[in-house]
Write a structure and sequence with these properties.
This protein has 318 residues and is mostly helical. Helix content is 73%, strand content 0%.
Length: 318
């Protein structure tokens, strides 16, 4: 079924404009909610709130690069202290440090008399810390920007569906009265579908920020950050599913476009013939005026047949 959103399976008649618009209005509302609230508000604020301090990020980078290194060794390198010994049995790696940094950072001040010396803040690992923090913040901005752009293109598509479907795709009567207009509307719809698909492609790289979160977000806070991102991904999936019938329709329209163009040329030729008809051309007939009118009627009939072919093609037929 070429355009399943717009066709009803039982009787192969097209769906109403209202059914199609209700679908896209629901999706657009969801996307706008994500772009305006989840991305612009909740997600950036949440990441700022739960992002680990620089020393913790440095420790996390080192732990991921050297998984065989013990937590005790990592603490001695980053903090110059045996945190497990200081805190006691309640100590948990990548949890207690976060709490200490927030509530009592004085515990992490290096002990100058201790034989253990933390790596200095000009050590290369802290360049990596700065880099990954920038990448995460840029990634969130990109995710927000591309999601907002996608919502905008989807909104435009909704407007075009509202004007194009009743005017060209759902039309029941012959469209010979405005073939160029119907073609233009359909081409605009195809272009907008392509634009939305392009925005989907641009959004996908922005989701790579998820890969960077493990460096800057403590494990116990990951869910708070991943949840809104998952909401974005699920909404994107919903749009892709909704667009799939339009994608099928696009392929059919692209395949039919050459046929439409050829038929349009024939209609233009007929219009030119009708325009150039003169009663003098039928002077040899017993009734020149009747012969002229009959010829116009004949050409109009041919034009109507061609118009019906164009209408079928614009509706997704072949």
């Amino acid at each position: 079924m070429a355009f399943s959103l717009l066709y009803k399976e039982k009787n192969s008649t097209m769906a109403s404009k209202e059914e199609v618009m209700n679908l896209f209005n629901k999706l657009s509302d969801t996307a706008n909610g994500l772009a305006d609230k989840t991305l612009k508000g909740l997600l950036p604020e949440t990441i700022d709130k739960v992002m680990m301090p620089d020393k913790m990020i440095a420790k996390k980078i080192m732990s991921l690069k050297s998984p065989g290194m013990s937590d005790d060794d990592l603490n001695l390198m980053i903090y110059g202290k045996d945190l497990k010994k200081i805190v006691g049995p309640t100590y948990k790696p990548f949890f207690t440090e976060f709490t200490i940094e927030k509530l009592n950072p004085s515990i992490l001040i290096p002990d100058l008399k201790s034989p253990f010396k933390a790596i200095p803040e000009d050590f290369p690992i802290y360049d990596e810390v700065k880099k990954v923090k920038i990448e995460v913040k840029q990634g969130v901005f990109l995710l927000q920007d591309k999601s907002t752009a996608l919502v905008s293109e989807i909104s435009k598509l909704g407007v075009l569906i509202g004007s194009t479907i009743p005017a060209a795709i759902l039309i029941a009567a012959p469209i010979s009265f405005n073939i160029p207009g119907a073609i233009t509307l359909t081409v605009n719809l195809l272009n907008q579908i392509s634009s939305v698909k392009q925005k989907f492609k641009e959004l996908t790289p922005a989701l790579r920020v998820v890969d960077k979160l493990k460096f800057v977000i403590p494990d116990h806070e990951v869910e708070a950050v991943i949840t809104p991102i998952n909401a974005v991904v699920q909404t994107i999936s919903g749009f892709e599913q909704a667009l799939s019938p339009f994608d099928a329709f696009s392929k059919i329209q692209e395949a039919n476009q050459a046929k439409v163009d050829e038929l349009k040329k024939k209609i233009d030729e007929i219009d030119l013939q009708v325009k150039n008809l003169k009663i003098e051309d039928f002077i040899s007939f017993p009734d020149p005026q009747k012969a002229l009118d009959d010829k116009k009627k004949e050409l109009d009939g041919v034009k109507e047949d061609i118009s019906n072919q164009v209408g079928k093609l614009l509706k997704g037929g072949n």
